[in-house]
Write a structure and sequence with these properties.
316 residues, alpha/beta, three-stranded parallel β-sheet, 10 helices, 9 strands, 38% helix
């Protein structure tokens, strides 16, 4: 029986045809991460991100966060027979033992804090376990790859407070200068929930070898992203995405990250290759990678064990 932990999806804010957020997206056939699409017998843990658009700041950001958070809790109540919110590694294993899917609440975008330190305790109380500091643009904490601006003074001050409140820092989307700033203020292991290797695919959203090595030293966790533009620089019609995905894994392993590597699909937030376009395809990818020469121990680490260990060691 396969087990899978996925560190990032945007399903909670997936858009309907009219541009509004879908109703009940956890079980919606129009979503990539529809729990009905998980093959029978597979134990699945999904980190569900509340994606914060860059243009939402201040009260608008708070209102948006609250609306999606309320939708999330409505779904947990509606689907309580099959899905349970999990905050620790123990919670994930308990959900699986009960035959349920595990859901971890996360936030993608530090604008959720609206520049207010007091909101850290508030979102921690809501059960948020991971926060992606920025998206592509700027917010009160720092900036993504749209600029070279690093962390703000507020960003540098809020990192320790997030750690103290049990919210894991996520550096996916953070630009290079911001990553360097983070290393000076972070004292606990952090994540890159959905980022690949820049040596294999040159997009600025991916991690450099130096970043990866530093994350290995700090016992961090890195989730492999399925977005075509982060897997390969080649034009899509010429690309074997499954093989390129394999090359990313091999490069991470060569850098010593075998025990730091996990999955971070970006379901419902990116254009995905057919070979990774649904939960069932991810299960098939395990077998493909096994045939490519990776061992079952290596793949079990990547597909769930590394992430499960990280949650055991870094959450409470």
């Amino acid at each position: 029986m396969k087990k899978i932990i996925d560190l990032h999806c945007d399903t909670l804010t997936a858009s309907a045809n009219d541009g509004s957020i879908m109703e009940m997206p956890m079980y919606n056939e129009n979503c990539d991460m529809d729990f009905n699409k998980v093959p029978e017998g597979v134990k699945w843990a999904q980190a569900h991100a509340i994606f914060m658009p860059d243009e939402y700041r201040g009260e608008k950001a708070i209102t948006f966060y609250n609306s999606v958070k309320d939708s999330y809790y409505n779904q947990l109540e509606a689907f309580g027979d099959t899905v349970v919110q999990c905050k620790t590694g123990e919670d994930i294993e308990a959900a699986w033992s009960e035959g349920k899917f595990a859901s971890i609440l996360t936030v993608e975008g530090g604008s959720v804090l609206a520049g207010d330190m007091n909101r850290v305790e508030k979102i921690a109380g809501d059960g948020v376990k991971v926060m992606t500091l920025v998206w592509n643009g700027e917010n009160e904490i720092g900036s993504g790859h749209n600029t070279d601006h690093g962390l703000s003074d507020f960003g540098k001050a809020v990192i320790p407070l997030l750690e103290e409140n049990g919210i894991i820092i996520d550096v996916s989307h953070l630009n290079d200068n911001g990553f360097g700033d983070l290393l000076k203020v972070a004292s606990r292991p952090f994540m890159a929930t959905h980022s690949n290797s820049r040596a294999i695919c040159s997009h600025r959203r991916n991690l450099t070898d130096e970043m990866i090595k530093e994350m290995v030293k700090r016992n961090c966790l890195i989730g492999l992203n399925y977005y075509t533009a982060f897997i390969s620089d080649e034009e899509e019609k010429n690309c074997d995405y499954a093989d390129m995905f394999f090359q990313h894994i091999c490069h991470f392993i060569d850098l010593g990250a075998e025990k730091n590597l996990a999955l971070g699909s970006d379901f419902d937030g990116a254009h995905l290759p057919d070979c990774l376009s649904s939960p069932s395809k991810v299960v098939e990818m395990y077998d493909y990678l096994l045939k490519k020469g990776l061992t079952s121990d290596q793949l079990d680490n990547i597909f769930y064990k590394n992430a499960l260990r990280f949650f055991h060691e870094n959450t409470k």
